[in-house]
Every structure is written in structure tokens, then in C-alpha cells.
Amino acid sequence: MLKLALCDDEAEQRAAVSRLLREYAALRPELTVKLSVFSSGMELLTAAEEERFDLYVLDVVMPDLSGIDLGVKLRELGHYGAIVYLSISPEYAVESYAARAFYYLMKPVEPAKLYQVLDQAAAALEKRRASCVTVKTREGLVLVPLDRIMYVELSNRVVRYHLSNNTLVDSLTVRTSFQEETAQLLSDSRFFQSGASFAVNLYYVAAVERSSLKLDNGERVPLARGRASLMKQRWSDYWLGGQAEEQV
Length: 248
Known about the structure:
The chain is globular. The mean pLDDT is about 90. Helix 2 (about 40-50) packs parallel to helix 3. The protein has a five-stranded parallel sheet with strand order 2-1-3-4-5, with helices on both faces. A five-stranded antiparallel sheet has the order 10-9-8-12-11. It has a three-stranded antiparallel sheet with strand order 13-14-15, with helices on one face. It has helices spanning about 10-25, 40-50, 65-75, 110-130, 180, 185, 230-240, and strands at about 1-5, 35-40, 55-60, 80-85, 105, 130-135, 140-145, 150-155, 160-165, 170-175, 190-195, 200, 205-210, 210-215, 220. The chain has about 250 residues and is α/β, with parallel strands linked by helices.
């Protein structure tokens, strides 16, 4: 199922985009699209307290709470669905990166372009759902989605997975090196080994500091001396190279 949330304060625009989204759903019956429509950012935020959406289609210019601010607040709440912005002007495109937007479309929306973007978002979601790492724990094998791992650390011979929902997954005691234990993670372009015992998901990095990486939840992960330049390059490539579209 693909759960879509549309938010636009203008009734005419809301109806027009809603119609396009329903037409898209009819063209892609294999996705089983569920559409929820909201007339304000606050209305969507209230709904987001109870339900998570896979894709958000947000108008940029709205009273009280702009689409950009709405996107940022959704991220702060731990909602990582893809965000597609709609606007009559390109002037907010750069600001949309603050909410880690998947795409920025100009109004009036071209149906073919919108459907293409939705297909890309759906494909990224499917890939994300299928991408997991298996962790051996005391309770048994646990499948952990890679996109939910904020960072990993080696502590007292245990590999600890810090997840975006503020939970932890601890492995059994390891007998090999941290790099060997996290080989699957490190082979994925989203992850960077910031130190001898730390690997971080680039998606959650908010800032690269002198000796640490600041994550978007305020936590800091150590950054080894001499790795700052490589980290900045990897971080830049990740966001500007389009790799972030795969993790939404």
C-alpha cells in the first residue's frame, strides 16, 4: 500500500491535485493507493500524530504554516516519507532541502511529470522496505531496515544499532572487527565509517563539525581526525548526487 497525504490551502488547487492523484491510483492498481487530503498544515500535523504516510504532496505557500516549515516539523516528528513540493515559483526550491524534499514541482502540475515522480517515489519506497540487515540478538534474529538506522557503534564487544524511532538493537557479543561486522552497512552508499567504532547514516547527518557529526535529533557521533574532508565529500555527493532520493 502507498499512503499519500495531500495538503493545500486553496480549495481549487486541492481539488485539481487530488483528482490527479486519484487518476494516478487508478492507473497503478498494484500499489493500492490510499489518499488523505488536508486543507492546512496544522490539520496534517494532527493526523500525523496517529498515522504515518509514505508520500506527502505539499503546497509551499500556505498561511500560518508554510509547506517548508510543515516538512521540517514532520521530519522532527520522525516522519520520513517522501515529500513532493508544489509551487508557482522556483524561489523556495533551495529551502526545500531543509525538509529533505524528494522533488519540487511547478504549478500548474503536468500530470505526466507528477506520475513520473510518484513512480520514482514508490520505487524508492519498495527498495527501502526490502533493504534490511539481519542482527543476531539474545531474542533471536532481528531484521532492521537500513533506512531506520541512524548510526551504529561498537560498545563492550556488542554492535549497537541506534534507530530513528529512539530504540536500540544490540547484537550478540562479536568476535571479529567492527568493520567486518558492519560490512553490509558500509557497502551501502548511505553509510560512512566516521571512526574505528562508528558508522553513520548520511541521511540523518545535519552538520559536519570538527570532531563530530551532528545528527538531526541533536545527537553527536565522533568523527575521527583526518576524516572530515572525506566525510564532507561523501555527504555532499549523497545529497547533491540524488542518492538521498532512495531513502525517503
